[in-house]
Design brief:
With 256 residues, this protein is α/β, with parallel strands linked by helices. The chain has 2 domains: 139 residues, Response regulator (Rossmann fold), CATH 3.40.50; 110 residues, Beta Barrel (OB fold (Dihydrolipoamide Acetyltransferase, E2P)), CATH 2.40.50.1020. Helix content is 36%, strand content 33%. It is built from 8 helices and 17 strands. The strands form 5 sheets. It has a 5-stranded parallel β-sheet. Strand 8 and strand 9 form a beta hairpin. The chain is elongated and about 70 Å long. It starts with a strand and ends with a helix. About 10% of the residues have low confidence.
Length: 256
């Protein structure tokens, strides 16, 4: 059984790996991953394991963001010190939710649950499970989801309708909320574009705008567009003539 551990505290990750190996000689720990960014890069370039043990609050965000970025149809056992994420965990392929500090007995019970599930996953049942995981994965894509923002020692949830735009300044990604506050993000504008493409449009290399932030657009010589926001912003937003038709089509579609 190949297992990957996602945990930002190295000592905790090593302790969990040792405890899992003591549970069964058949367990192989294939990777210890310490952040959302590292996990996304790993899953994009390596085969998926049989099972994932994951913390929820990582140094650069929530582990749910991994499932939102990379399509994973792998059962996940979440090990965390916080119980307020239980519902989200089971929406993100979770089959068990263990609160820290965990015991060996709890790990054995979680593994037993996974093994029993594996026995049931044969034939048509396996296909139904696969479809269910794909459906959950699609639901996790934040077309109508939430962006988690790390602010000081807290994680703040922002639904997409509360976000005015994302922009890059001095090589830093910044989120501007409709309440006027701005927050620095660790994600790139490219990643945010993929996650929010239903409601946001990449106007140019520096800015990603929510439809509900746009007051109107005006022609700008030669054959460009100027995006006028419904609030004051410190930068003018221009769309190239190459993107002009796509932006107009997107606006027309969103308005219909």
């Amino acid at each position: 059984m190949k297992i990957i551990i996602i945990e930002d505290e190295s000592l905790v990750a090593e302790e969990l790996a040792a405890s899992l190996k003591n549970c069964s000689e058949q367990i192989e720990i294939t990777a210890l991953l310490g952040s959302v960014k590292e996990a996304v890069a790993y899953f994009k370039n390596n085969p998926q394991p049989d099972l994932i043990f994951s913390d929820i609050q990582l140094g650069d965000g929530l582990s749910f963001e991994i499932m939102q970025t990379v399509p994973l149809n792998i059962p996940v056992i979440f090990c965390t010190a916080f119980n307020e994420y239980a519902l989200d965990a089971f929406k993100a392929n979770g089959i068990e939710y263990i609160l820290k500090p965990f015991s060996t007995e709890e790990l054995k019970m979680a593994l037993s649950k996974f093994q029993n599930m594996q026995k049931l996953m044969s034939g048509q049942v396996a296909q139904q499970y696969q479809k269910a995981m794909e459906t959950i994965s699609n639901l996790q894509q934040p077309h109508s989801g939430t962006i988690m923002v790390k602010y000081r020692d807290r994680l703040l949830p922002f639904t997409l309708d509360k976000i005015a735009l994302f922009f890059v300044e001095a090589e830093t990604t910044v989120m501007l909320a409709h309440n006027g506050k701005s927050y620095v993000l660790t994600e790139s504008l490219e990643d945010l574009e993929k996650r929010t493409s239903r409601f946001f449009f990449r106007m140019n290399r520096q800015i990603l705008v929510n439809r509900n932030s746009i007051a109107d657009v005006t022609d700008y010589f030669p054959r460009k567009l100027k995006i006028n926001l419904s609030f004051t912003f410190h930068k003018d937003i221009f769309v190239s003539r190459e993107k002009r038709s796509k932006v107009l089509a997107w606006l027309a579609n969103k308005s219909s």
